[in-house]
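Below is how a single chain appears once it has passed through the pipeline. First comes the sequence as given, then the structure the pipeline wrote out for it. We keep one example in the README because the format questions we get most often are answered faster by looking than by reading.
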Amino acid sequence: MTTYRVCCFLRRFRAASNEPSEAVRDVFQAYTDGGGVVGEEALRRLLREVQGETDAGAEAAAKEVMAFAAEQRLLKKGGLTAEGFHRWLCSDANAALDPRRGDMGSPLSHYFIYTGHNSYLTGNQLSSGCSERPIVKALLDGVRVIELDLWPNTAKNDVEVLHGRTLTSPVELNKCLDAIKEHAFAASPYPVILTLEDHLTPDLQAKVAKMLKDTFRDMLYISESENMAEFPSPDYLKGKIIISTKPPKEYLQTKSGKEEETAEDRAEEGVWGEEISDDKATALQMSEQYSGKYGAEEAEEEPPDGEAEKKARQGADNEYKRLIAIQLTRRKHDMDQDLKVDPEKVTRLSLGEKAYEKAIVSHGAHIIRFTQRNLLRIFPRSTRITSSNYNPLMGWRYGVQMVAANMQGHGRKLWLTQGMFRANGGCGYVKKPDILMNSDPDKLFDPRADLPVKTRLKVTVYMGDGWRFDFRKTHFDKCSPPDFYARVGVAGVAADTRMEQTRVMMDSWIPTWDREFEFPLAVPELALLRVEVHESDNHQKDDFGGQTCLPVWELRPGIRSVRLCDHKGQPLRSVKLLMRFEFFPSSSSSK
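Resulting structure:
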């Protein structure tokens, strides 16, 4: 029994038991022999029929399951017991995602790339400190694009990294470069792209060039020609650090300033932030508000050209320019021109969140065509003082490779980014689906179109466990065990975006829901499965119990173990859900 003290009384509850749920036990019983165990032949059949294994895969998996059960002493008369089957289902060996990597030999523009924004900040965008530590954490989490803002120090004789026009405290550039060198390939062997927003004089640019060469040496990728006809592949660039910025420009002296916090920023301040919308309302609002032109409201990397800049460029350090492997195109603030595809040369374009929102209203097809050959980066608007994030799907739906995220801004928007890059073995590069690479004008993808259902995903949430090991007995409720419920849904194109919820399981550390949900999917190639667990509280805001986000196209069919993460996206030590994933043709129903 588990007891909770309420004033001078003790409340007693049944002790937690991690036995299989009724639905899981029914699956096991369907394959047992007369002795209540599953033999090897029946296990192979179960693995084929329930877990979706091929004949060869079922053979190998059956041996692994039997070896696992033997090690746990959960075999009986040579067969697998119900407890052994349940323990294997809940193990990391039965995880929901396939860890294998796919094709890495296509040009960089064919991949979504895990991208950070203001990677050096420790907190908010206005007054937090700058440090190399957030850079290290981002690299260890698999981030492949690191952004550094370069400014002269007060003596104008050295370079610092800080968020300009704010009260952030600087960090030395050499500390950031050393951290990148040491940790760049700890989580992934594929290239790290270093985007520099420099506000330096030519002599300081020369100093940065020397620091880059001295620090990275052979790791630094230098293009053989100034203009590339096609980007190299991640495979070709393994172990390389790539510099991306504009050709040398003038140093613009600016003053620190403050920006006002918006209502949307405040909405993100909760433990998990605002709900993910289907973006239909936003798209309608944008189409009514904006025409085909956009200005320089968010030219984070793009001060206007002038006579002084031209003179500065003429005297700029040639070595600094030579190190820029991926040049950033200077925006003309005319979408037709900015998104024009040059068949002889590839480049990178950078758009602020607000400018991009305008662009997808009138030039969505242009963006898809542009990103089939070129790189596009979008970054959060400057008013996101609290380091909140926008919905990254608005970028991925149009093929944008670098959807920059504030890694300090935890919440549902960042969870989507973390979920996307769990794909492809977590290497930081995810191959774009074929629908975004089709250049036929008659078949160009339109994420806002009325799309037919392509497949149906049935998700069963059986049960959860692990909170009793990772949290204090009174963490969720001082007077009783927690009352957990699960939220399950999909984020993707507007037609696929939806959330569902289980019932609340009262007073249980090991909740059993046995609840099925079905999701018709028009674009499963861009769909992310969202899973959250909360603890119901009648008197105040529900407590957070864990979350994860998984790429639908990489889900392994069958009953799988799903590890939950905390609100920062870090895996919880013990908390897992047992879930089942089944895919059905669009024409049929799973019922």
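Residues 353-370 form the longest helix (18 residues).

See the next section for the split statistics.
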